Please model this.
Amino acid sequence: MQVAGVQVPLPADASLQPGQTVTIKVLESGQGLQLRIVPQASVPAHSLGALEELVAAVLESLGAPIGPELPSQLVPANLPQTPDAVRALLALFVSRGAMGEDLRQIAALVEQAVAAGALPRSDSEALLARIVVSEPGDFHPVLEQLADAAGHTLEARIAMALAAGNLDDIIDTLRTDLRAHLARLRENPVLQRFLQRTGQLRTFETAVDRVLERLVGAQLQNLRGLEQPYLFLEVPCSPDSGIQHAQVHVFSEGHGKKREFDAANALVAFDLATTRLGDLWITLRITQGRCLCRFCATRPAAVDALTGAAHELVQALEQAGHHGARVEVALWDADRLRETAALMRRFSGINVQA
Model:
């Protein structure tokens, strides 16, 4: 089987067909770690009609508008074409997440259990708070952690450890990965009893489920990275940080032979919801080292403020190493789904008609 580009051999008697889509679960048992491989009924890649119907149904259930080109633009070629997978992916761009607030709440509830003696204190508990942006200085370390996790997903690291026959690496991965950590907390019977006794179990489980759904959706979006250099991040922000929602798309626009990011030729798109300026869609395009930064805001007052600060923004970009920087500002209708679909159009290739 192939997991995030890593091939892992299967037993000779595995009743699977080449090209078949499967779900892989890693289970802990008395005999050690086990893999459970469950075949999935897949939709043929060429069956665009079925895909369009599935995406349309999911968008309708999410209360989102349906555009004529959205299905083919928003769904990665390697995405399992199942309702759960498509919903987890599209929910990223239809609904605003509250990962920062949820993670803080989860961390607070776990800390209550630790303080009450219901749980032992663990170094990994700090992971919940360390991954949330609270102040401007938090952005760089949080982005580094998220980028590293996105580039080395839980499944990929487990697959590589299995291929190398190193079970210790699998144990370390399960201890330090955010998804694995949250899933382990959710199934912890001692923590469940404590939260049940204090009347907070439902609050805890709902918050964990919301975060896990966003993490799975982000991982599915990062399947784009199998096609060309691309990285997607959803950044958890504290409610009092001034940023209520933050997503980042990073594309390499270089033409090198290696599938690597080219810092001199790149496009970075920021989808932000802020307390002061409202919703913002910001693109930073770097071409041969020269930078064009475009701010799109939904509030006329925000457009005026950004226009007035354009010179200051240019200076900041120059100081960051982007010489010859330009800043543009425009009013925006807040159609995040359309903007995201436009970004993803580059993955569809070129359609030339006579």
